[in-house]
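Re: duplicated header lines in exported structure tokens

Our pipeline writes sequence and tokens for each protein into one text file. With two proteins the header for the second block appears twice in some exports. Here is an export where it did not happen, for reference. First protein block:
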Amino acid sequence: MNKNESKYFNTAKRMDEALIALLEKKDFAYITVKEICDKAEVNRSTFYFHYENTTDLLKEATQYILDSFMSYFSVDKKRVIDQFADCELKELLFITPEYITPYLTFIKENQRLFKTALNHFGSMDFSSVYERMYQRIFDPILARFHLAQEERTYVMKFYLSGITAVAMEWLSNGCSDDINTVIKVINDCVMGDRNVHG
């Protein structure tokens, strides 16, 4: 990356972070270019050099959050997707420390960012990200487990909602419990290892 590219990247990053900080306090529809520029310490001409409008910046900020999140995973995504059809079923269980630890580590180290992303799930269009993940990852996995097509979206939402609820409860306590404790809770709930009846 040359000096000009680096300067461009750093300015864009400042505006991404400015928008995310503003989203902690108000809905996207009420955020102005002036507020973003003031927060990022750039002038309006710089903003319009990078973006046509605040929606363009929102798309970039969403990608910034996703890239930050994915940077916590060392898994080769293409290799994982390529092996869906042929691997053993146990390799398709993603409720393992290999996947849950980076997820929870991201939450712990980016608590405000994670809360902001969840609070603005709709405006940041994370639903389309989920839809792509469902088509490329979750649906093929559920097919391998012979789940009926009409049941798959329900099952996936059930598991993801549960995992998110556990993560949010952990987050509400400032992520004070040990990550391994939270992993065990998630694993026990998903895999059915918890003996509720004693």
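Second protein block, exported in the same file:
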Amino acid sequence: MPRPLVIACGALVSELRAVLTANGLHDDVEVRYLPANLHNRPDRIVPELRALLAVHDPDGDRPVLLGYADCGTGGEIDRLLAESPRLQRLPGNHCYEFFAGTPVFEALAEAEVGTFYLTDFLAKHFDALVWQGLGLDRHPELRPMYFGNYTRLVLLSQADDPTVVITAAAAADLLGLRFEHHHVGLAAFEQAVTLTLRKVA
């Protein structure tokens, strides 16, 4: 059987590499990444996935793990999955859910609906992906339009990195939101990746 193909969001590079290496899987799969800034253009995710599949799985005979949740595609990724049983994606609606695990994320979401979430990657790249990505560097007056219904910013951290916490707290201050930090590590993500790889292998 051909080596499984993993196509993942660029925001998962560090975490996915760590999980694959820790489980002795790094050499057993081929990994390709799409740009992380597709977070801001979810309508482009499935076309980009199709383009990579055409290049790296032209015969349609490889097991494929998509390193995405729904990620704001409105079910488009699941419609792509429905075309072939060899395609699987990570469980959940977004990376916050598969990093935190569904029970933890649902508890956070239920406790306070108006929550903006960051992962380590999004905290490190907040300026480029959020502040500049939404045009707030040029039009800060738009901040209430984007974030007026939010009340807190929650960092769901993967690594134990104080600089990420400081950066996320600064982002919360910039957005005028209350800051909370929940260290979730990689356990839930590791389980999601390994279980889904077993389904496609």
